[in-house]
Design brief:
Layout: H1 8-17, E1 18-28, E2 43-54, E3 61-64, E4 69-75, E5 78-80, H2 82-85, E6 90-93, E7 99-109, E8 116-121, E9 128-133, E10 155-162, E11 166-169, E12 178-179, E13 184-188, E14 202-205, E15 208-217, E16 223-232, H3 242-260, E17 269-274, E18 281-282, E19 287-291, H4 302-318, E20 326-327, H5 334-351, H6 357-373, H7 388-393, H8 398-414, H9 416-430, E21 434-435, H10 437-448, H11 452-459, E22 467-474, E23 480-488, E24 499-509, E25 514-525, E26 529-531, E27 543-548, E28 555-556, H12 560-569, H13 576-591, H14 597-607, H15 614-631, H16 634-654, H17 660-672, H18 676-687, H19 699-711, H20 717-726, H21 730-742, H22 746-757, H23 764-774, H24 779-785, H25 788-802, H26 805-814, H27 823-835, H28 841-867
Parallel strand pairs: 1-10, 16-17, 17-19, 20-21, 22-28
Antiparallel strand pairs: 1-2, 2-7, 3-6, 4-5, 4-7, 8-9, 9-14, 10-13, 11-14, 12-13, 15-16, 18-19, 22-23, 23-26, 24-25, 24-27
Helix pairs in contact: 3-4, 3-5, 4-5, 5-8, 6-8, 6-13, 8-9, 9-10, 13-15, 14-15, 15-17, 16-17, 18-19, 19-21, 20-21, 21-23, 22-23, 23-26, 25-26, 27-28
Length: 868
């Protein structure tokens, strides 16, 4: 990986020197269906011609290319000696002229890691599927280029591939494919607008393709017609609900046209759901790619449909924030990701059927941000990105969820109209260009009349999360005589920020069994203490909720009375957003060691069964598993597991038959089952001899149950082989691989470790599945993988140096011995960090983050043990 890096200073020097006018890229993908070579990687022909100017005649620069072989390099009509100018990652460009033409003919390698041009062979039908994924800098694995976001240019793509395939790129297809004698064809695509290399795209294979059209008539009478496409592998066609995807797509396009006053600028809009995808989705203009898990093979809850809709809208927002106007360097990644995250949620609530999207945002998205913002690697929203490795790791909870939360706060601060008018001016002023933080702040200052510099300094240029706590006094009649909000910050990040918050006072109605708000005030919090005079004189509340309506980004605490009320009556809060904010707050108390894990688990057992919001319920299930596995005192863990399993069985039988809640409880039961009774129930449901009224045990749920039974030693390799014969698909293979690695056997764990650590033959998806099966949380499983804790620290540096960054990240994160929650593991981590101060900063960051999670878990376990 170090040889593939690019620093910010190198990029700045090159941007100051070069102006790129256009690319012509020709890819010959016919080799994709040929047998793999006997040795070396499978490759394809890639020929690139790029035209560019140089500000200094005679200067030297370089192009980026990662390829096993380069046939030729021609610069301004002259052939350069490949061995002299190509070092495996860069092509040196000497003696540049004012105007230059560079042509590089290379053999590039197909990927099995999801980076560059990914090659997937479908085990179900033997078909080959290809797609590209580049962010932040993997286009150079597919064609020679200047791989940095501020050297934008138009692209002309030509692709040669089997004639029966579907082939897509950013631009619309120009004419019919040109048929060749060997059964292949040549596709030519319309020239793009100036875009960055990392959002160019090619998708090719026998994909199942569905089409539709979006039409819009604007107030001035002009009309816009956008061809729509949606595609997936043929094996998933029977599950593909393209109509729902198109409905959300059209609703999103209407929303962004209503608010942005800049028509969709990229012609067509294809959305490809592709296999073995490393991330959720990617905003390639005109050719968005998504992980195919968004094509649901079995029954899922409405939270899954909401999540997919949110991702569709997030990527669509990028067409303006990121694609039309692009950050200059990865320091300002937030200019696209934070805005897309916020606008995706905004559009979801205002334009689709998912009107409770802000509840999911408050409970799920912000949870990601709060964790990231308390890690030692936390950083300002506008980060200091020194190089590409830094950039890769900064696609995190700060850049996405905290940035989006900050923008939600900004809308409350400047007003929605001023915010959207600022966006409109931003697009028109910087269309097809690159920007920095100050470019956006200037338009927001214009439209809001506020000093954006101070706001940006507080919210964008400092790290850490503030804590807001109410402080109340009462008179003898029980009336509030003073209500103040205390703001705190950590010692490492002491910034006290301005917050626009709503404060809600809630009162119980014992007869109705409800907890409802009876008074509310909005206030600008600043400094360590802020009074809320509007609520003076109110009757004594049972609950004071700071950050009611979730306007700002902060952790909230409770006064003693409020916390006591939540312990007994959290489920009685009638407003679902207020309830979600309270659930988020008690989870933060648990993570911070201020609420024993067993108390959080008991809250979930007591109130989660009545939780109306399915997304909140599923988040509670995930948090409860983490509380049990990591934060509960080891001596209580077995009892906690028993309580959770019994509670899950009870709620499963109590849930409405056929409902999403029933399905969520079934999956949760599988996650926590360990006792004979629960395991017998799962086995019966799997075999068809048991029954829960209304619960359909489809293929996806079968694999879920089977993983649990396998991890408990109740299903063997033969059972997994039989299940794969029922589901002999790519998805089934991933499930089988995970289950195989979950078997409670020392030999199995050794084989799984070797397949990931000592070999690089597994694809990215199978690496992920193997690691997931290897790291099972059960007591016996922890003992089986304990010997690998020391081996982990012996291998991670060589893994980082020898694997692609995506696989390196998966292994370093996934195999960290987090389940060995002992001081010895912490000491081993500290010893590695002390002995490897010169290791790659990105690698050290991953280890530091894992170390922090472990230290937090140990603190929480001590707090839980004290409560026992």
């Amino acid at each position: 990986m170090p040889g593939e890096n690019l620093t910010r200073e190198e990029a700045r020097r090159r941007a100051g020197l070069l102006t790129v006018h256009g690319y012509e890229v020709a890819l010959d993908l016919r080799s994709a269906t040929a047998p793999p070579p006997s040795e070396g990687p499978r490759t394809f022909r890639s020929t690139t011609t790029v035209r560019f100017d140089c500000a200094e005649e005679g200067a030297t620069s370089f192009a980026d290319l990662i390829a096993p072989h380069v046939h030729s390099v021609r610069l301004n009509g002259e052939s350069l000696r490949v061995e002299e100018v190509f070092d495996g990652t860069r092509v040196a460009l000497p003696d540049l002229r004012a105007t230059n033409e560079l042509t590089i003919d290379a053999q590039c390698a197909y990927s099995r890691t999801g980076e560059g041009l990914h090659h997937f062979l479908d085990p179900e039908d033997g078909e080959t599927y290809l797609y590209t994924q580049y962010e932040p800098a993997d286009a150079r694995r597919v064609f020679a280029n200047f791989e940095q976001p501020d050297l934008k240019a138009p692209f002309d793509f030509t692709v040669t591939a089997p004639a029966r395939w579907t082939v897509l790129s950013n631009g619309a297809r120009e004419g019919e494919p040109q048929l060749l004698d060997d059964g292949s064809a040549i596709w030519r695509f319309a020239r793009t607008q100036p875009i960055s290399t990392y959002i160019t795209a090619v998708v090719a294979g026998p994909y199942h393709y569905v089409s539709d059209t979006y039409r819009r008539t604007f107030e001035d009478g002009t009309e816009l017609e956008v061809p729509l496409g949606a595609l997936c592998r043929k094996g998933l066609a029977k599950h593909f609900d393209a109509d729902d995807i198109f409905t959300v797509t059209k609703q999103g396009l209407d929303f962004f046209h209503d608010h942005f006053d800049f028509p969709y600028p990229f012609g067509k809009y294809d959305q490809a759901f592709v296999p073995e995808y490393n991330i959720g989705a990617m905003e390639n203009p005109g050719c968005v790619t998504f992980r195919e898990e968004f094509v649901f093979r079995g029954k899922v809850t409405q939270a899954s449909y909401e999540g997919r809709a949110n991702v569709i809208l997030h990527e669509m927002a990028h067409m303006w924030f990121g694609d039309l106007v692009t950050m200059e360097w990865w320091d300002d990644l937030w200019l696209k990701e934070s805005f897309a995250d916020f606008m995706g949620a905004f559009a979801l609530v205002d334009a689709t059927r998912f009107t409770n999207g802000w509840i999911t945002f408050a409970n799920r998205r912000k949870s990601w941000a709060y964790r990231a913002d308390q890690l030692p690697s936390t950083h300002p929203v506008t980060a200091d990105i020194r190089d590409l490795e830094d950039a890769k790791l900064n696609f995190d909870g700060i850049t996405y969820a905290k940035g989006a939360s900050v923008l939600k706060q900004l809308v409350a601060y400047v007003g929605q109209d001023a915010f959207l008018e600022g966006a409109r001016r931003y697009f028109k002023r910087h269309a097809w260009g690159n920007t920095r933080l100050e470019d956006l702040l200037s338009v927001l200052a214009e439209t809001s009349g506020r000093d954006m510099g101070e706001w940006a300094k507080a919210w964008l240029q400092t790290a850490g999360v503030n804590t807001l706590t109410p402080q109340l006094t009462y008179d003898e009649r029980g009336r509030v005589t003073e209500l103040a909000i205390l703001q705190e910050a950590s010692a490492s990040h002491p910034e006290l920020r301005p917050h626009r918050v709503a404060v809600g006072l809630y009162r119980r109605d014992p007869a109705a069994g409800t907890l409802e708000r009876y008074a509310r005030a909005e206030v600008d919090v600043s400094g360590a203490r802020t009074s809320v005079p509007e609520l003076v004189g109110s009757e004594r509340p049972d609950l004071v909720l700071v950050n009611d309506e979730d306007l700002t980004y902060c952790k909230i605490r409770f006064d003693e009375v409020s916390l006591a009320t939540l312990r007994e009556h959290l489920g009685e809060i009638t407003d679902p957003l207020a309830r979600a904010v309270c659930w988020s707050a008690v989870w933060n108390l648990t993570r911070d060691g201020l609420m024993p894990a067993r108390d959080f688990i008991r809250l979930v057992l007591r109130f989660a069964g009545a939780e109306s919001e399915i997304g909140v319920l599923q988040m509670l299930h995930a948090q409860t598993r983490l509380a049990l596995d990591m934060y509960a005192a080891p001596a209580w863990r077995e009892e906690g597991a028993r309580l959770l399993a019994e509670g899950a069985v009870s709620e499963l039988r109590r849930a409405e038959p056929g409902s999403g809640h029933q399905l969520a409880w079934a999956r949760f039961l599988s996650a926590v089952a360990g006792g004979e009774q629960e395991l017998r129930l799962l086995a019966g449901l799997l075999a068809g001899t048991g029954r829960v009224d209304g619960l359909e045990v489809d293929q996806e749920l079968r694999w879920t149950f089977l993983e649990t039974l396998t991890a408990e030693g109740l299903a063997d390799e033969e059972a997994l082989r039989a299940e794969l014969s029922r589901d002999d698909t790519a998805s089934g293979k991933r499930h089988q691989v995970r289950c195989l690695a979950a078997r409670p056997s020392a030999a199995v764990k050794a084989q799984a470790w070797a397949s990931v650590v000592e070999s690089d033959t597994l694809s990215n998806a199978l690496v992920e599945a193997t690691i997931s099966g290897f790291t099972q949380p059960g007591r016996d499983q922890r003992a089986l993988i304990a010997p690998y804790a020391g081996r982990y620290f012996e291998v991670i540096e060589s893994i980082w140096e020898s694997r692609s960054i995506e696989i390196g990240m998966a292994i370093v994160r996934g195999l960290y011995p987090a389940l060995q929650t002992t001081s010895e593991t912490l000491e081993a981590t500290d010893a590695w960090l002390a002995d490897h101060e010169s290791s790659a900063p990105a690698l050290r960051r991953l280890v530091l983050e894992s170390r922090d999670d472990l230290a937090r878990a140990l603190d929480a376990q001590r707090a839980d043990a004290d409560a026992g």
